[in-house]
Every structure is written in C-alpha cells, then in structure tokens.
Amino acid sequence: MNKILATSLLALGLFSTSSLAASDGSLKYSYSYVYLKCQSASCDGAVTRWHKMEVFYKQAGGIPPHNEVRVYWNKNEPADIAEGRYFAHTNGDFCPDGSRMTAKWIIGSDFRPTAAIATDCSGQEHTYSVHEFHF
Description:
Layout: H1 2-24, E1 26-38, E2 51-60, E3 66-73, E4 77-78, E5 87-94, E6 100-107, E7 113-119, E8 125-132
Antiparallel strand pairs: 1-2, 1-8, 2-3, 4-5, 5-6, 6-7, 7-8
C-alpha cells in the first residue's frame, strides 16, 4: 500500500510539472532583469522596475493549427490568445472594478520582446519599449 501511495505521489508530481511545461511550450527567452520604458506622452518616459521575464513558444494542433507566444513578466500572465509567432497577449494586475489590465507584446525574431502596448484600468493605451538591465 505504501509503495502504491509513493508511486502515485511521484507520478502526480511528474505529471503536474510536465503538464505545466507542455502547456506553455518551449522556453525561448529568459532574462532576470527586464524593464520597460514608456514611450507615450501620457507617461512622460516613466521606467518600470526590473523583473524576470520568460517567453515560451508553442505550436498547437487543432482546426486550424496555431502558434502562440506566452510571456511572463512581473504580474503579467498569458491571456491564451494565439496570434502567431510575433505577438503575445497578457493579462496584468487587477483593476478596482475587478477587470484586468492587458498588454500586447511585439516579439522579435529571436523571441525577445521589443515593445508592449499596455491598456490601463481606465482604458488608456501606453506604448513601452522593452530593455534588459546589465550591471
């Protein structure tokens, strides 16, 4: 009985780890210190703090088959919108009304995000450039 329980727990742990990796696709870019610089007049060149960024790429079967880029940065999580190889969509932090801020990321040929168009809680769009911080 103990062997069955231990085997089940081990299998569950392996399954949950592999299912997370499989659901996001393959890791294509990762950097620990990524920050954004606002390019819109509305935010006057504001710069965010740096956070770890990870970019995954997956090809999914279906009718029709599709490609999806998934970005994780700060409080942004993938929005499960497949728009091909050069764009990613994320949901950001929560707004007071319960909705979420959103962002559309422009992805370069090397899978590094180059820009983001973020929509804040009031519906206003802000354009950001994406940068790596090097010590």
